[in-house]
Amino acid sequence: MTTDPEPILNLLKEQVEAVGKTLSKIQSDIWEGVELESGHVDAQGNCDCLKPSDVQLDAVRWASELPNGESTPQKAWMKGASEASAYQQDANERVFTALQDLDAAEAEYDPEEAVKALTQQLTHLFGLSCWDDSAHRTAERVLAAWQEYVPPAKLPFTFTTFPTNINQLVIVKDIEFSSLCAHHLFPWYGVAHVGYVPNELAVGVSKIPRLVNFWAKRPSTQEYVTSQIASDMKHRLSAMGVAVVIEARHTCMACRGVKAHSASMITSEMRGIFLTSGEARAEFLSLIGRDRI
């Protein structure tokens, strides 16, 4: 079995570059009057930039919420600058951590040594008598299964869009997916319901399930996957609104610890019109078969 570290390296490099660009943008936003690009932050406060986007959003709020008696926006920008430095420090720490991960990933990967190490752990924990063929073969299968959840550095498909003048709700529901718990590496699986209201662009219907699986195929949490699907859809389509609901079962909760076999988890992420309009949100929930969450 061979494991190609190239997708992981590319992803980490992109993350490092993205955070560096974001830091430069932070400085520009704070010290040059928070002159954000058109569409960078929409009317609902959604930011299309990569994290940490909180800095830009807070800078906008500081500039627009001048205390009584302050006659110039410069004072508000100065007020925000000191708070933004804390965010900057956190972002710097993220860059450092990403660089450390990159160094580790660039180390030569020896699949035979990986199988050997895992085999030793398996036999140490469970002994030799419980394997139907061998612990060595089980170790090979486990590593091969994990390989299926290595996230690609970019979308492995074309996110096809086309112009539209339709501004009605579009939903793809009951999208089946599976993922790995980032805390225990146990599988979690379920269905996703994704809806959006187009602005000027619509997306090919098959691309929505593909996007769901793109974000699910990695060690992750349900909360993170829900948020990333919504953010990605909003960013790529500049949609009037995006709604995502995920219903899933987690084997890390069913097969260990509390052993809640029949428990399921529901997460939702509402952006744009679904966040500001109760009617739009209610229509989406009704059409996916849930009057409320």
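Second entry:
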Amino acid sequence: MILENYQGVFLPKEEVIALNEIERLKGEFIPNVEDIHVEVKGKDIFDNDVIVLRNFFGFTVENGHVTKLNLRSSYRDVIKSETIELSQQISSIPKSIENFRYLRILDLTKNGISVLPEEIGQLNILEKLYLDENHLKKLPDTIGNLKNLQELYFNRNRVQNIPETIGQLKKLKKLEFWENQIENLPESIGDLEQLNELNISDNEILTLPKTIMKLKSLRYFEYTYLHHENFPNIIGEMINLEVLNLGIRTLTEFPESLCNLKKLKKILVEGGAISIIPESFGDLSSLEEISLSYNQISSLPESIGNLTNVKVLKLALNNINSLPKSIENLKKLEVLSLYRNKFNTIPDSVYNLTELRDLDLGDNDLAEIDKKIGNLKLLEKLNVYEASQCTKRKPLPRLLV
């Protein structure tokens, strides 16, 4: 093996060739970011190993080979809430990318890339590939050759079709491609037997292939449905789902087929026109978190009292003026958001929710707070901001009103 020096690091000649080509395209040298450790105190969707790579433009060497390569131009600092510029954008990827045969993580986020070279399929041990926020219109068929790929992200691009070869990624666990122009999913998506998380929201997908039911390992699913009818009830047959995040813009009734998802722990259906929640909603007995905010719901079914594992219930920005008495059965409830609804009094059933820590009744029409609020011994946060007259009353002991 012939070794050459690149920025003080001895690497195989073919890897140095690739780095030099990328350097010319970038207009700046690619630094070695080995041995950098970052403690992230804020919420981040990436594991620590990838946080280090994504926050520092450059490459990492292990056992004499480039194993991680970050070519993203910037990233969002979750702590400071600002964009940190890392490097110049790159508009193309050289064919010599195939020289990085030991590459495990490749990050090409926030560039101007419109085409991925077929040679990317030669990265046989690649585990994580980030292509977010580029100008891609398609993925090469050779993407299916990445047999060890576990995570694939190409959010915020212009992709219209996904190649059938994606079904060859047998080790894929996370797949995200929200905000593209995709109308149909390939039938082969059902072959992703280890897929755990799938986010296809904000595309133009109206129907889902029946093969999606084969995704037995799928636990997280996010999808935006924009049509007026023919909701893809097949989602209700994805029985192993634990988290479901749906954007339903036009339906007025919560799809009853979703009430078959008995393993569901978290459901988010926000920002739509839903006004009716069926009684069968109470069959989702594993639910721990519910968010139905930003809809047009006027009432909840009595069966909601069956959801005794719920800890978080968010119903903000609806048209609700009362709660079913059965709500008091939610003995584990810690967070209840009724912000900007139609309440003129706090329902008596709320005073029996003795595990409540956070109660939001802001922007309602409350005239008073009953002294029974004292039953909520664990309450840490009570919001009644802009509720008429309520804020003029003497604050209750141990509570911030």
